[in-house]
Specification:
The protein is built from 13 helices and 13 strands. The protein has 403 residues and is an alpha/beta fold. The mean pLDDT is 96. Bound molecules: pyridoxal-5'-phosphate.
Length: 403
């Protein structure tokens, strides 16, 4: 293990990969088997149904690739678009930026709407751009639901309303890598056409699965889509998935892990999973406030419940905090990316996580900040989060007693 310390747990608080629960680790510890055997579909068929529940869709079709989330970005675009097609994409962080660049590599023309980092997709601007596109040359709108680089969540339902208000047929493409499985994500209700995620964030697995969900409207565009696609061709999956098989060797341990992950999410209940993320995020935000530090998210409506990006004061470096936390306290915090490099550090609070784990990270961040000279009072952030967690718990108990 890197860093000075070998005893105790490494505190993994980057917003992905997230902690893999022991239950899932055990479930993945399996001998290899024949992925074309008659028994194999017993494992695989329920995975597609389970993912549909996580996406909250009846109509959508799920595909599971052995890839990271980036592969699913590529699959969403190449299966539905042709080179030269126009896309509209707000850019407000490193992940929205990378998706745009990936689209351009495939010969797609992306009209970028620059938004201040710390804000998100602006439905009014999207509506205006689509209204101005009288000939319907824009074929899709790309939105990153939860911008992991800045800790900003955008309102996907509002983007759909904007597209509809403009009377525009563009597809709605959504990156849900750091939201799906942690934040409420309503594929059908919000009118999403293609949504992608990866296994290593809310799904609590190692990286290695890229998961896509496509609406009937998106699937109808596959036939005329001319972008080159080989490994990520959805048609190959549709030929084999219904029987419970894959066009190439699937990532077996990850599929067993996914089965366990889905079981855990459904045992807790998706609504409870979402509520837990809101609650843990509120404790993290209380800590930042007690430190006198602001979030990268510019207003409460943008604040993410899966990751908080905390700005360090002028004259200090977020990178120093991260390196001190890692080397001295065995705590991994997320770095500032690109435009935000050095300006912030991020605490991921998604996946398999509870109050005391998070208090450990808040405590470590507090010590690391003090060590590099940032004038925060030791215990202040921890105490604020503790109050938040105690009170929230009390409120829940009172509600139960009242019922
Ligand atoms: C992590 C992440 C990705 C990238 O996924 P990989 O699995 O690293 O390819 C894309 N989008 C968002 C919002 C992410 O958080």
């Amino acid at each position: 293990m890197a860093g000075a310390r070998c005893s105790g747990r490494n505190f993994l608080f980057v917003p992905g990969p997230t902690n893999v629960p022991d239950r899932i680790l055990r479930a993945m510890h399996i001998p290899m088997e024949d992925h074309r055997s008659p028994d194999f579909p017993k494992l695989t068929v329920p995975l597609f149904d389970g993912m549909k529940k996580v996406y909250q869709t009846d109509e959508g079709r799920v595909v599971i690739f052995p890839s990271s989330g980036t592969g699913a970005w590529e699959a969403a675009l190449t299966n539905t678009r042709s080179p030269g097609d126009k896309l509209l994409a707000p850019r407000f962080g490193q992940f929205s930026h990378l998706w745009i660049e990936l689209a351009r590599r495939h010969g797609l023309e992306v009209i970028v709407q620059e938004e201040v980092w710390g804000t998100g997709a602006n439905p009014d601007r999207i509506e205006d751009a689509l209204r101005a596109d009288k000939n319907h040359e824009i074929k899709g709108v790309l939105v990153v639901h939860n911008e992991t680089a800045t800790g900003v969540t955008s309102d996907v339902a509002a983007v759909r309303r904007a597209i509809d208000a403009a009377g525009h047929p563009a597809l709605l493409y959504v990156d849900g890598v750091s939201s799906i499985g942690s934040l409420d994500f309503q594929f059908d209700e919000w009118g999403v056409d293609l949504a992608i995620t990866g296994s290593q964030k809310g799904m609590m697995l190692p990286a290695g699965l890229g998961i896509l969900c496509a609406s009937p409207k998106a699937l109808a565009q596959m036939e005329n889509a001319k972008c080159t696609r080989a490994y990520f061709n959805l048609a190959d999956h549709f030929n084999t998935n219904p029987g419970g098989y894959f066009p190439y060797t699937p990532a077996l341990p990850l599929l067993y892990g996914l089965r366990e992950s889905l079981a855990m999410l459904f045992e807790e209940g998706l609504e409870n999973v979402f509520a837990r993320h809101r609650y843990l995020a509120s404790g993290t935000r209380a800590a930042a406030e007690a430190w006198g530090l602001s979030l990268c998210a510019k207003a409460p409506k943008w604040q993410s419940d899966t990751v908080s990006a905390i700005m360090v004061p002028e004259g200090f470096s977020g990178a120093d905090v991260i390196s001190r936390a890692y080397n001295r306290y065995n705590l991994a915090l997320g770095a500032g990316l690109s435009e935000m490099a050095g300006k912030l550090f991020r605490i991921g609070h998604l996946g398999d996580l509870n109050e005391l784990m998070l208090l450990g990270a808040i405590s470590g961040a507090e010590m690391a900040m003090r060590d590099v000279g940032i004038p925060v009072e030791l215990g202040s952030g921890v105490a604020a989060a503790q109050e938040c967690f105690r009170n929230a718990d009390g409120a829940a108990e009172q509600r139960l007693a009242a019922e």
